[in-house]
User: Fold this.
Amino acid sequence: MKRTQTRQVMIKNLPLGQNEHVYIQSMCNIPTKCVKEVISQILSLEKMGCEIIRVSCLDMEDAKAIAQIQKEIHIPLVADIHFDYKLALACIEAGADKIRLNPGNIGSKENVKKVVSACKEKHIPIRIGINSGSLEKDIHEKYGKVTAQGMIESAKRHVSILEECDFYDTVLSFKSSDPLLCIEAYRLACSTFDYPLHLGVTEAGTTLTSAIKSSLALGTLLMEGIGNTIRISVNGSPEKEIPIVKELLKDCRLISNVPNLIACPTCGRTQWNIENAVNEIEQYLQTVNKEITVAIMGCAVNGPGEAKHADIAIAGGKEEGLLIKKGKIIEKLPQDQIVSRLKKEIDEF
Assistant:
């Protein structure tokens, strides 16, 4: 799907916009000042496929910790700042590769100019994040409710402040917990601005609700060519987010180095614990970066036929299973060897 053309913004060494790549983002849920724990979490997310990471900066201790974190990680780091321009300056000085800051919320224009000047000097972009739940009071009153038009009006205010300072290395986001409002807002943003867009559904909830809401909203937008980077927000550990976004991008044909796992829904013919096997293999595949289709089928009746398009497959049965490669049955395996053998075949593929 051809991406909508935007300005290009560099986030460290990553060109955002004017290309077909949609970068995967996540955000640490550990206080940034807890340096060792944050580094460990980021390195784990890197292995899973995260390409940009964001951290919160609530105070100067958080901001100064960025310098230490940057020494150990390999992907661009975004500092999330609200209201305090001094924190933005401290994060920039500490080595942040991008900041998330709404310029209209940090006081006088002099404060904004100081931040913009520092960003220009270090070649650091700014993401303006418009959330439906925190629109300005007058905009909310003007439209009577939260609307896509109101979100765009809010963005124009913030963007104009940066443009008055001759700053254009800007990224925009328009998040809501309502997936249909997200779709409308991002479509309108795409026709209003030429800045790269960060896709997301905010306050999306649990793994289940987030996967559904995000697939509806962000999947729709991705298939329309809208969006240059994406975060799927899930309550809890950020490690939950990466598999969902990778699956979404894979199914939208936007990335290819992601395994494809096929598993039958089970029925009365199933005579082995396929659910445990599927869960273990799904977890194992999260750090596998190769294009491979793995099928785990519940029985030897339909399994071989249904798995014929997989690179590697198992059709389980009573006490044993069939190992299948490229549609051909290779051998029978004892049931207790199925999972370990699948892992070995995946590694060697």
Summary: The chain is about 40% helix and 20% strand.
